[in-house]
Amino acid sequence: MKLVVFLFFAAILNIGFFEELKVPKRYKINLDLPPEERWNEVIDDHIDAIPAVVNETKSYVPEALQKPLFWLAEKISVLFAEDYVREMKAIANRTGLPFGEIAGLNILYDITSFNRHIFAPFACTSIIAEDSKGRIYHGRNLDYDMGDLLRNVTIIADFTQNGTLLFSTPTFALYVGVLTAQKPNAYAVSLNARYSGGYVDNILMEIITMFKNPVSFDLRTTLETKHNYADAIEHLSRVHFVAPSYLIVSGTKSGQGVVITRNRWSTADIYGLNTAKGRWFLIETNFDRWKTQGDDRRQMAKKFLTELKRDNLNSKTLFTVLGKAPINNNLTIFSTVMSAAMPDTLYQTTAIRIK
Known about the structure:
InterPro entries: Acid_ceramidase-like, Acid_ceramidase_N, CBAH/NAAA_C. By secondary structure, this protein is of the alpha+beta class. The protein contains 14 helices and 14 strands.
């Protein structure tokens, strides 16, 4: 009887008792190839799963808005970087899906992130922590509402050029932008959703920016063109975005870790590590740090890290923190711990969480 009660409460509290961890498959995205060829192996391996993901995505968009939304995504794609458009068109051609739907899914964050969001929620938790030897770890849970489907298309993509690894990203098979990534020996970055302002603000910024900087596309461009921590932060603090966001950036040296709270036009706040003041970790979920939190993820992460203590921090113990409820919850697709100074950490810790 006691075992039955334990199993019951374990399921309710989502403590991961029934959870399975699966290692994503790694793929090389060779930027020396024509854009039409870069994702072929990825698409072929997920050809049966991708249509279901796109179809489910459509169900989160009000039916009356689906046609105009995907039509708009196709039309404004001429404003995106040419390589990204050609990659998305190749994915559409190889899967047989409409290009507008592939493009719409790739910019879904930018057209749904506002205060009264009516689409499926983006969540996520990002943690930057520095151990007692000055080593930086960057933990990340990506949460989203289409878990069963997205887990089937979760991969690790290694972007290469001229035979050199530019960056690695735990991502999804039909997604050409970046939400989570590590540039070896330089920096790591993760995007957390920030819901701020009204939809009219998104529309105005779409007009002002000519939709040239969807957040996930700009993160990829940053990783391709900004080669150190300082340059990445400077760019991500200044660029104009359609949608607000939290950009969490970690480096390779002691003290290199910030949460950039982004408005559409500018930066609202930059908050960094400061071990001299006892601030050896930063936690971001989906709420401004200076406001009341909307759930318990940050509070519980702080509790777990405080109990862990800085001397006991490493990639395994941070991964354990990411696995605790409510940081790990029914929406969590995957977890990873990155460390730009120790690049193999990403491959050793990234795991799909099968509920």
